[in-house]
User: Fold these one by one.
Assistant:
Number 1:
Amino acid sequence: MSRTRVALRLIALLIMLSSCGQKFSGISWNFLDRNKLEVRETNFEYFSGKAKINYKDDEHDVKAKANVRIRKDSVIWISFSAIGIQGARCLIDKDSITILNLVKKEYYVFNYDSLSKRFNFDINFEAIQAVALGNLIKEKDRNDEVEKNEDFYVLKQRSGNVSIHNFVSPKTMKIERVEMLEPDSKNTAVIRYYDYQMVEDQAFPYSAIISLFYKANAGTLNTVIEFEYNKAQIESKELKFPFSIPKKYERK
């Protein structure tokens, strides 16, 4: 598998990383004042969770379990396993993304600058963290547009050449869908958040589906990732993020 394709699948997996056990109160908002659209975001210092992941593309259909730990604005740590065997470990920090393949004894390192150029989108730690939590990928600014349809407030943003449409529930003020389009390549990503439940005093999406359509040598490909938490909690104590690369592992 080419490094480019590995990177694309990695980004697909991370994007999804990141809805109704409790009722939410509605928000009264004057639509004429666009600057007052406030999306409710998940906020904490430490987070941990357990989830099931189903990854499917033109070649693979993989089911795995994942343990996730996050220190907000610092690091995301993920351990993947299948049939009780730990298969991979991923560390995402401010500088890069590193993946250990524990089965093949090899590892990958991706820096954000090269990934951003490759996909024509500003990929960084903050964007990955936002998607994992159901938060805005790009901070609101005065150039954003807001529309209202029958079901959602639609916050329209741009990041370079990529358009981002955030569909926000008027009842919960949480994001339920994100649509991204890179017009030159026609590459698209759609993220859908479901089953929002309260984790302490934070509304958190327990389920997500990501659909990616992108061009490759074989034509337009589709990758779908389904993600479902069975446990999610905000931690009051400091978490550990064990991660080291054995000397015998080969860098790919």
Number 2:
Amino acid sequence: MSPPFSPILSVQPTRALVDEKLKVVVENLPPGSPVTLHSLHHSEDEDYWEAYGHYVSDFRGIVSVAEDLSFGGTYTGKEDMGLLWSMRPVPGSRKGLRLRKMNICSPLLFNISVYSGHVTEGFREETPLTSALIERWYMAPGVKRIDIRERGVRGTLFIPPGPGPFPGLLDMWGGGGGLIEYRSALLASHGYVSLAMDYFRSQELESAELEFKYFETAFNIIKEHPQVNPDRVGIFGLSLGSLVTMHVAAESTIVKPRCCICVSGSHFYPHDRTLKEVIMEPMTNSHRVRVDENNHHIWRDLWKELLSDPSKKVDVGKINCPILLVNGQDDQNAPADECAEDIAHLMNAAGNGHLLTRVLYPDTGHLIEPPYSPHCRASNFRVAAVAEKTVTLLWGGQTKPHSDAQEDSWKKILSFLQQNLYSSTSPRAKL
């Protein structure tokens, strides 16, 4: 039986970048009416993800997600973006899932619905009072996507709309390998020519020397692009990509990044070993890997042991550009907070500590993604160096503080890039 009212759902904007906020309002409800707002996403992996909040309409018959409290659901309190960041696999889903967008030429689609009463399960079997479909994009209109197969480098280049010249970024992900494009697409949407680089598949990189030259070549491909300002090129790395970022910034005689961003990273890099050999460390020393009560692998302690061995670390005292470290205190994959402390100590001792900016977030794990991405505490992980080896890694973090950290750190990252790649002056090392 239909309710004696017709609620009106407004979700604005209906099409936006993933880091833009939503305004969700339901009108024309009876005053004091309990309702559930629900979001549903069907992933590229054919899995369903959902989030929901329980609300009560005010005296005008209105619910505003930005202004009203959620009294229950996957998030509580006044959370304007809770319908996105608190998403989780629907009950009965496969284990170890992580939501990531691989085809950035299409949007993430979310169905926002309103249900009568405070519903906690069986959403797909219930008929909503009203629904709206929204699009969330990593790639803004006008951004160009170009496959790169040049000088042995494989990746994807994203170029902002307009003639340029623009600042440039070399963008590197972690030990899972593959070509991950979504952060580069989002960076291009904010005005940076960004090269998402695949650096694990190449069979030619069988020595540390060849591997190092690969990163230098990739940096120069960006630097030499006609739409890039060659004096304003930085490096952005997450996890293993952060390790590479620091290594190249410290040791290269031809690559001079204007700035570096390292998210959830360490500075462990034995100079005579390839990255595949480095990432094999947990596999060859599995007896030192801890597991939690769910048999999720915890790698942070294994890497932590290397802090006392200077031969296993990047000489960060050689870095002569501004560097931003973004880490979580509950990172269970790498001792990122301890590494940040050690990096600060080493840089201060070398006289370049003024170039270092550190941001540390409590109850935040390893996978610090662009804002409003669902928090992933643990997921299946295929080690790129061992194609047949898959484990479930504990990344860490608690959903609400981790999500807050993703939003805050992205603002700080964009501000850091603006200051160092767009402004007329940025700090350098004291010569």
Number 3:
Amino acid sequence: MNKINFTALKQKFPEIDKKIARLEYLSAKENDLFNIAVYGKYNHGKSSLLNALIGIENHFKVADCRTTIKNDVFIDESAGIQWIDTPGLNADIEGEDDSHAVDAITREANLILFVHSLRIGELDQAEIDYLNELLTLKSASQIILVLTQQDQLRAEQFEIVYARIEQQVQDVKIRNICISTTRYFKGLSNNNSVQQDRSNMGQLQQMLHENYEHSTLQRDEFDNLIKEIIHYLENQKKYIEQKKAEKQQELRKMHTNFQNDVKQMMNKIQQNF
């Protein structure tokens, strides 16, 4: 069986290069790790979220300044999960950080945690655009909108902001959950189960568990990618054949018109002589 030349495919069809890159990654993947990546704008709590999920408070760097400038990973062999921390979007003027993040979530991620801080308010247009772009590459079941820093809003503020965000994402049909890593780690340190429950981290972990326990998820994605790419290539073939037929028709018409013009010219010459 001939190997697929993924490099040539990506160069030939740049409009679907991310889908091709994902298929290439899945085809070459040698381990069974389930990749979960965090994605979102700078300083919205991505690294803190991952620290809470892996249960190590300071594994991923957390600071007010930009610290994650390339993808960082933590592998939990016992659970079969690779956690991927990506740089904050729009934090790097040259866009190099964004390219690392996009590569992780489009090529490597089985599941994406799109992180937004509630203390900022509702989603901005850039975040909505990021979500819509993700949905052209992943299914809605592969994305969870994680709303962080719930503890930094008063109850009435939270209700207003959350209602606005729900309205913003109602058409994209992705799951969402509000969490507080601060409450979670305080609950752990104080052995306070109430604080841990109020953080909603247990609920998020259950949502993740339901995904990575689904053994056919990656196989289904692989099969769907092949179908999507084949469908795209078939449509491109039809488009090229249609354009070829139109060009041939145009050439035949030009040839007929040329013959008629020559015939008319010859008739005029004969009439004059």
